[in-house]
Amino acid sequence: MKTFWAPHAWLRREGGSLTAVENDVRIDVDAAGRISAITPDSGPAPQGATVLTGLALPGMANAHSHAFHRALRGAVQVGSGTFWTWRDTMYRAADALDPDNYLALATAVYAEMALAGVTAVGEFHYVHHQPGGAPYTEPNAMGEALIEAAARAGIRITLLDACYLSSGFGEAPNRHQTRFSDGSAEAWAARVSLLKERDHAKIGAAIHSVRAVPEQELGAVAAWAKERQAPLHVHLSEQVAENDACLAAHGVTPTQLLARHGVLGPRTSAVHATHLSEEDLQLLTDTSTVICMCPTTERDLADGIGPARRLASSGCPVSLGSDSHAVIDLFEEARALELNERLATQRRGHWTAAALLRAATEDGHASLGWSESGRLERGALADFCTVALDTPRTAGQPPQLGAEAAVFAASAADVRDVVVGGRVVVRDGTHLSVPETGRALNEAIGALR
Fold first, then answer.
1. How much is the pTM?
2. Which H or E run includes 26?
3. Active-site option among 66, 69, 272, 275
């Protein structure tokens, strides 16, 4: 058994859903990496305990990631353009990937996530084959590189293997997209079925978008996920142009097309869901589909502000992702939900700090299939992080307002310790297995040029 001790921790009240900051919290972890006991007001740290810094929170879930997009940070901020011109730059980065350099890049990116308090990532993975489309000798070489990268960085991963078959409605993949395509949903399913789960890794499915998966193939992807009770994620209505093209091709919106083929539901996460009709909103809430918001990417790409508050109020769980990794900071993603609503409505107070933390933790983990994580309570996976309450950003209020300080003021730089399955991954702000994370990122990104 391992014992950790935190001066403060954000805990759920015994027998209820309300949360509060408790003091002098002892966290005991069993040999299986689960919390065996959690004791507030435990007194001073016991001898031999790992003493944590600041406020302990459940580990955060980055529910939507494209690891290789991290190579674009800064480079795509030059000049102007649209989502579609940004996409051209993204394709050039994808063209440079191979299993070895992707392993190096993803390891560094996942280490950056760990430094930000992320203990699980949903990797929306679509770079499957060699440039030109020929499979690797190991058909899942690229996916295996991502799974191994997560292991090296010490975090959990749900590999959301994406079906990507066309460049648009009725159009063949372009020269960049040929390495994304398996040719059919049947071939996609055959390849993905070769992937094996392991202690730190789950396998899920993804429909890249209704642009990229023809209507007649949508049901096959949904059926694969349903048979395995696996998470299913899909980019949805990120751009108005996608909606217009879908209406022209099928006479319905993307949400309506997905509903027609049984894609929506509580195991499905709709990523972005930015531009929705009233009927779309009703379909998503009627099916309890999870909504994954990625505010820093949505504003970086000028996507717009999605109806997250309306969807959450109607019963859709909300998770968060850093998507293109314009920044990797789940505190920033969380507070952006509230701040975006304030800008759109000219009113304050749409989300509490507790609701935003739940989106960043428990609901995010559930959307990735890690339903036993995202909570600091007995029986849960021992995945947690701490945020310092005495930095220039977080100092000034009593610890009882630590949740508010974390959500509305902290940054990833304020994370001090990260524990995954009872194993210390980050200590005092340093990643233990990738201690020079910035250098690792520089080298990995430089290798793609």
1. 0.97
2. strand 19-29
3. 272
